[in-house]
Amino acid sequence: MGTIKAGFWVLVICIAFIFFFQNYNELQHPVVVSLDFYLKTWTSSPIHLWMLLILFFLLGFIISSLHSAYERLALKRELKVLRAAKPAASEAKQ
């Protein structure tokens, strides 16, 4: 199973490299990001598109990691409660 998983990640990395190398010129274009609120407008300085792509990928990775950690913590709490209740249930049967 480990070799399949490693092969999958090698394939994903190869596809990412192909994507970046084939679209290198398009990814070098500067992009200006602007947010228009009712009271204030915010505009960034020109940023290369590849930097935005990596930034948003990392942002999504961090958000999904935090969400996964929260779910894992909630499941550990629930498991702790269920384990604490289990001996009481088995004592009631005797």
Determine the strand fraction and express it as a percent band.
Answer: 5-15%
Q: What would you call the quaternary organization?
A: single chain
Distance between the termini: 44 Å
SSE succession: HHEEEEH
Tell how many strands the DSSP assignment holds.
Answer: 4
Question: What is the percent of helical residues?
Answer: over 70%
> Which blocks of ≥5 consecutive residues have pLDDT under 50?
none
State the domain count.
Answer: 1
Which strand order does the major sheet show?
Answer: 1-4
Helix/strand-derived category reads mainly alpha
> What sort of overall outline do the alpha carbons produce when their principal axes are compared?
flat
Tally of DSSP helical segments:
3
Query: For the report, how would you describe the main beta sheet?
Result: 2 strands, antiparallel
The gyration radius over C-alpha positions equals 24 Å
> What is the overall pLDDT average?
88
